[in-house]
Amino acid sequence: MDEKIIKELISKAAGMRKISYTPYSKFNVGAALLAKNGQVYTGCNIENASYTPTICAERTAFFKAISENVREFTAIAIIGGASDAEELEYCFPCGVCRQVMSEFCDDDFIIIIAKSEDEYKVYTLPQMLPERFGPKDVLG
Ligand code: THU
After folding, report:
1. What is the Å distance from ligand 1's center to 47 Cα?
2. Residue with CA closest to ligand 1 atom 14
3. Which residues, 6+ apart, have CB-to-CB distance to 38 below 8 Å?
4. Is the CB of 47 under 6 A from ligand 1?
5. Is 31 in the pocket of ligand 1 (CB under 6 A)?
6. Is CATH 3.40.50.150 correct for 3-139?
7. What span, in angstroms and rounded, lies between the C-alpha atoms of 48 and 19?
8. What is the rounded distance in angstroms from the CA atom of residue 47 to the CA atom of residue 55?
9. For residue 64, what pLDDT is reported?
10. How does DSSP assign the chain, residue by residue?
11. pTM attached to this predicted model
């Protein structure tokens, strides 16, 4: 994938991280999802006093796109860490978010896990969720 696009996605994800609503965990995550139509859908994690309604940054981005009838995706960049962290560690998507990716993405979907615009790792969906259960298993 083009490095310039990767850096742009990371930059957008980092911007979203700043507006995460995380009064409970104080763990801030931002995501930027590139759709095949060229649009970027961003997301941050949004927590809740009742905890369970909390949504991850990745799913926020996916649901924003899907709710606008956009269902084909190329890549997602994810950046996250404690709000007071001096240096970020890699923040990998949770299992629920991987399953949501599995619903809407093909095997060539790219997942970029970033510490910064210059430090990131690139995975494909099957690397993140091997032997995945998806729409084909139910629909044939
Ligand atoms: N979180 C995300 O937004 N994405 C991830 O990939 C991992 C976890 C959020 C959920 C919760 O608000 C906080 O991080 C701590 O789990």
Report:
1. 9
2. 27
3. none
4. yes
5. no
6. no
7. 15
8. 6
9. 98
10. --HHHHHHHHHHHHHHHTT-B-TTT-EEEEEEEEETTS-EEEEE-B--TTSTT-B-HHHHHHHHHHTTT---EEEEEEEEEETT-SSPPP-PPPHHHHHHHHHH--TT-EEEEESSSSSEEEEEHHHHSTT---HHHHH-
11. 0.97
Which tokens is 80 given?
A: 């996250």
pLDDT at 24: 98
Candidates 3, 8, 58, 119; catalytic one:
58
Task: Provide mean pLDDT across the span 70-99.
Answer: 98
Q: Catalytic annotation on 117? A: no
- Check if 29 has its Cβ closer than 6 Å to any atom of ligand 1: yes
Beta carbon of 45 within 6 Å of any ligand 1 atom = yes
Tell me what the mean pLDDT of segment 38-55 comes to. Answer: 98
Relative to the CA of 47, which ligand 1 atom is closest? 12
> What is the tens place of the pLDDT at every residue in 2-19?
999 999 999 999 999 999
